[in-house]
Structure prediction request, 701 residues.
Amino acid sequence: MALHAREQDLQMTTDSEEEFTFSSESEDDEDLDDEELHFEERFDPAQDTFSEECENDQIPVAKRAKKTLSWREETDVDVAPKPRRFLPAREPGPQLSLADSHSPVSLFKLFFSESAVSNLCHNTNAQAARALAKGRKYGWTDVSVGELYRYIGLVFYMAMVKMSSIADYWRQDSLFSVPFPATVMPRDRYRTISWNLHMSHPDADTENDKKSGTAEHDRLFRVKPLMDTIRLACKAFYHPRRNLAVKERLVACRANTVMRRFMKAKPTKLGFKCFVLTDSSNGYTVDLSVYTGNDIFPTDHGLSYDAVMSLLDKKVLGSGYHVYMDDFYTSPKLLTDLFAMKFGACGTYRDYRKDFPRSSSNSLTKKSSRGSIRWIRDGPLVCVKWMDKQVVSVCSTIHAAFTGDRVQRKVKAQDTWRTKTFACPAPVTAYNQHMTSVDPSDQLLQYYTAQHKTMKWYRKVFLHFLDVAATNAFILHKELHGNMTHKEFMEELIEELCGVSESPETVSAELTEADLIHKYFSEGHTYEVILDFLATKHNIFLSLSTLKRRLRNAGLTRRTEYTPIDTVNAAITHELTGAGWIHLEFNFAIGTDLSEEDTLQQDQTKTQFWIELFSDLRERHLFNGSHEHKCLLRYVFLSILQKNFDEYRQLWNNHTIRPVRQSRCHSGKPEAMYHLPHRRNFLQPSPKHEDVFQRRTSLFF
Prediction:
């Protein structure tokens, strides 16, 4: 019997799924049976029913049917319901000004705003602190907002430039090396951020985990802060056009969690199930929800019904929308309830689903010719069957059964393929037109997807949120400007996130890693101090061997060959025996050590120059001290004065304060002592001396 075979298939589905789902949470065991039916055969127990009489091609009338409806043909006239007036809550399209210029990164930050990224940084730093407290052996410095944006830029870069492993992006001196990632951040820093990336606070996670097994436990707690932000942004910055589509997405994941689902019919068979509402005109993701189990929806109408209703908010969208869906969601109750809410709906359906017509009177058979149409109308709902290669079942509250539409199909006749034209129902034509846009939406997500292997399930969801944000940002840019391909958009987004393409002011103000290494090395700092400066002031993390390699490649080395002492003695003796100037090419760099008296003397010399200059101007009656003359002097000499101040600041901050006995001033370079107090080569000063130290090491910082 067909029914017996179908029940066996469903039982095998349930058994096979148990091999993929493992959980220590006992409360989830009772939900598995219904969930396996849905995710293997996309079966909804609340809507799909099997009867022992439902065999072969024909399904008899339901036993509880109030009346018997007969199938009509395409020659019979059908009248569509009165069209609902389209009243969107806002003007459809991007909710941004067309006159403004929108860069890829500005559109991406609509979804990943600085406040959202700041919250990510806070939770990530808290997670790293907890990991270090548990004994993890790696260096960590709190991640900043700018650094996390660069991290996201690298994730997108890896989505476009595929390598076999993360470590390959930082390979050096190889034919297959890619130099860009190393200029953004070191490999170890990228890995530590990946290990600790967290969307919720770890302390709150612990409190939520304690509620496991109760109704208060939230399975999506670790992703909910960012998920709520993404959902709000998707609705805020774009209002969909009239035709919407509801479909499923599967986020690939093999993590050991009860939320993981197995779907045999999908290309990606294992992962997290998402219900998605998209604009069928361009594939923009309007809303999404992650399925966690049968208890996600409170009503008793079934998963397929509740999933659609949860995505359609009349207050946010408006009324008069047309919603298209596939056969998992479609049911007479759903379509009639949507019609009462002033939403039209259309979708394929399953013959064995509750309340659909099962009359065999004048229905299609296997021998029906291609292009044959049968339909039944019950109030606003019309159910249509169309013979293509096989029977296609569609229902709608929008269209009439047949309006004269035609389709072309290739048919083989006498060993020759020919194109023939067949009649096609209006609901089928509309369904093919609007549901196919969901596939391009999925394609956009997959072209440059950020998905890669991770150790934690919630990081998989985080990567999917990145994909949704980048794809929606591209669609917004296309709607506003339309002058970029998807690849060009992603390339510019990566450049802007990683700080490669910035305004000229920013580029001139910020030094590159190579410039910073050259600067600190030229100032005479030790390797350890240079590494500390790069980490604390610029969020650049290098190992000692990497720093030495960068210095060697740049030709920066400490000179170790000194002039022989005999040559120095001979030159000094010659100078002492006669007048002249020492002409000796020393092979070592002269030190920058200056006493405070030398510094003060230089300062007094420059100060005296300005005093004499202004006195001379007054004597010549070129300056009388008025407000106008002061403004003119500032305009003429301010840049020169500022240059002198900058030179003095540079001289003071990088000169070496020599150790002196019984001196209250500590020795060392002021810049290093101020920014790297943990590297002071002395004990902490007493309280009465601390103010002196701060005053003397904080000049011009």
Notes: The first strand starts at residue 72 and ends at 73. Residues 627-654 form the longest helix (28 residues).
